Amino acid sequence: MKTQEELKRIVGGFDIKGNATEIRPLGNGLINDTFKVSADGGEDYVLQRINHAIFTDVELLQSNIESVTGHIRKKLEAAGESDIDRKVLRFIPVKGGSRTWYHDGENYWRISVFIPDTVTVETVNEEYSYCAGKSFGRFEAMLADIPDKLGETIPDFHNMELRISQLREAVAHDAAGRMAEPDAKALVDQIELYADEMCKAERLHREGLLPKRICHCDTKVNNMLFDKDGNVLCIIDLDTVMPSFVFSDFGDFLRSAANTGAEDEPDTDKVNFNMNIFKAFASGYVESAKVFLTPVERENLPFAALLFPYMQAVRFLADYINGDVYYKIAYPGHNLVRTKAQWKLFQSALEHRQEMADFIASL
Ligand code: GN1
Ligand code: MG
Fold it and tell me: Whose CA is nearest to atom 7 of ligand 1?
């Protein structure tokens, strides 16, 4: 870990107002390291160490983010919105340059302006979910006409066929010897039963029936800044903004929001799929996304709600079998606990499949 002095030196490489006075860890992402930087120049900042093992092309990553934030900023200006600096992230260039990232010889870093008086939460009520649905529909609508071509910062990030093949490779290599554990083996077997069905989106895409649009691809609840009234002010964690199916944002939000337990809840009895949250979110989302959603996209929204707990179970399990090389873990076996929780959520969502379909049809 870096010392305060080292972190301050890194911050000093960016064109911030004033100087950093204090730097503290912030948030609980599983990929990057995030810090809150207090400064004496009138605004505070968020410093992030970019996980370069996962985001190997930092230049592409930051170029995507600059395109997206720039485009949203223009849209908000054109719509005559107030308080724009609270509604879209602003990244700070390095001193004497235009790059928004800095390499210290070992790590890549970036800084954005901290947006005060906002909250991040791990759980949301129905009212917040409805607002979040509206915001995401709007986020996707705003990005529909972005002129820059965005690259995939993690190629095939939400490609279910790829995720299944990665799990199969992990099983075949069994790098950490964990396939000898009955729990791991049983989960792999259960996952395989649904593999074909869950790869439906890739098939629809190949048949020309499902477009890719610019999506956020990591819409879990804690990647949003809410204001006190439950409005999503601003969407954060933009590393994975890239072309994907609309299922990504719809499904991943519900994966966290409609879960009655934590993503890594050890007591799976506490994990259930909350239909009231589904209904609230779906109502908001369809309201603002109906302008661009095709019938195929719309009727498969319940599929999206199943796909994401499933995909996350596959990813956590593959990482467990690989020996915990991707997600940060807090204790041995964490990725297996996460897998079981996501698997339970998937089971619970499956029970509500028809109810979800009926509700979407009623909107
Ligand atoms: C990661 O960085 P964070 O924690 O917001 C992951 C997501 C997973 C999520 C599971 C780049 O997101 O895809 O859904 O963990 N991001 C990446 O909590 O893999
Ligand atoms: Mg995050």
Answer: 218
Residues with beta carbon inside 6 Å of ligand 1? Answer: 29-31, 54, 218, 220, 223, 237, 239-240, 263, 312
Nearest to 143 by CA among 60, 67, 211, 214: 214
The preferred substitution site among 65, 215, 220, 322 for testing ligand 1, maximizing ligand atoms within 8 Å of CB, is 220
Are 253 and 120 spatial neighbours (Cβ–Cβ below 8 Å)?
no
The continuous run of DSSP H or E covering 22 comes out as strand 20-25
Does domain 126-362 fall under CATH 3.30.1700.10? My reply is no
Asked if the 4-114 domain carries CATH number 3.30.1330.90, the reply is no
Domain segments of the chain as ranges: 4-114, 126-362
pLDDT tens digits, residue range 300-336?
999 999 999 999 999 999 999 999 999 999 999 999 9
Alpha-carbon gap, residue 270 to 262, rounded angstroms: 8
Is the pTM higher than 0.85? The answer reads: yes
- The tokens 């909350």 sit on which residue? 274
The Cα 222–Cα 114 span in angstroms is 16
- pLDDT (tens digit, 9 = 90+) per residue, 164-206? 999 999 999 999 999 999 999 999 999 999 999 999 999 999 9
What DSSP letter does each residue of 54-115 carry, written as one string?
TS--HHHHHHHHHHHHHHHHHHHHHTT-S-GGGTS--BPPBTTSS-S-EE-SS-EEEEEE--
Q: Could you tell me how far CA 144 lies from the centroid of its own chain?
A: 19
